[in-house]
Design goal:
Layout: H1 3-20, H2 23-27, E1 30-38, E2 41-44, H3 46-57, E3 60-67, E4 71-75, E5 78-91, E6 96-111, E7 114-131
Parallel strand pairs: 1-7
Antiparallel strand pairs: 1-2, 3-5, 4-5, 5-6, 6-7
Organism: Novosphingobium anseongense
InterPro entries: NTF2-like_dom_sf, SnoaL-like
Protein name: Nuclear transport factor 2 family protein
């Protein structure tokens, strides 16, 4: 497998794990001392990242992330990647939807076990809340 494909698979496993709330899978994409940076806050290490992610999702009935193909650059055992994402979900107990548009800027490192995030920085360029409108009847 090429190094670019291996890195894209790390990004894919992260998104898939987040969408299924499979925290062991998500944490396996980060170095043990890796950093998840969100809204200017550095959250470091598995013991801090996982509960921060899970806490956000407690306010949602459902939430999903869709990621684009990534732009990846490799320099030896280090790499960077940039991935545009769209996230959307419904607030628990409310007819209100959240949409987040942004991108991840990643620093990755190759370990004996493979590529992992040393830092995953999320930057939002769009945050929208709107009422959930009923769709057309099916059938």
């Amino acid at each position: 497998m090429s190094e670019e494909i291996a890195i894209q698979q790390v990004i894919n496993r992260y998104t898939d794990g987040c969408n299924r709330q499979d925290w062991p899978q998500v944490m396996a994409t980060f170095a043990a001392d890796g950093i998840w940076e969100v809204q200017g806050n550095d959250i470091q290490g598995h013991a801090a990242i996982q509960p921060a992610m899970a806490a956000f999702l407690t306010q949602m009935d459902y939430f999903t992330q869709i990621s684009s193909a990534s732009v990846i650059e490799i320099a030896g055992d280090r790499a960077t990647a940039r991935t545009t994402i769209r996230e959307c979900g419904k607030f628990k107990g409310r007819d209100e939807v959240l949409e987040v548009l942004g991108f991840y800027a990643d620093d990755l490192v190759k370990t004996a076990a493979g590529w992992v995030f040393a830092r995953r920085k999320f930057t939002s360029f769009g945050l929208h809340r709107f009422p959930l409108a009923p769709g057309p009847a099916l059938g």
